[in-house]
Design brief:
There is one protein chain. By secondary structure, the protein is of the alpha+beta class. It is built from two helices and three strands; from the N terminus they run H-E-E-E-H. It has helices at 2-69, 103-123; strands spanning 71-78, 83-90, 96-100. A three-stranded antiparallel β-sheet has the order 1-2-3. It is elongated, with a radius of gyration of 39 Å. The N and C termini lie far apart (123 Å). 0% of the residues are buried. The mean pLDDT is 77.
Amino acid sequence: MEIRTDNTRNAAIAQTNLERQARTAETFHVEQSANQQRQQGEQAKQAQQPLEEIVQDLESSLEKMKGVLRSNLQFEVDKKAEMIVVKIVNKDTGEMIRQIPPDDIVKLIQNLNEFIGALMDERA
């Protein structure tokens, strides 16, 4: 009879241990689900922020495109710089909106070409 009592006690202990493990696993899964939901919420917020920035960038690009659509392109050859210069000019006012390459770069290249020419003249 003593053997049966020990077996019954061992079975009860084993049952208690299984119940504890089941509760621990259940608690772990609940916590894990809550953490995943928090992470998904944070990711959604982060994804939304860049989306707003993208929309703002698109709006500013469209505004610039409006300006370009109301303009003419002029192509000129700068002989001193030995390059083609593109100017974007407003159709209505004739005002230059942009120059590619910028005027500073054109002047720099002109000066470099003059310097190289003077250097070659001295060597000859």
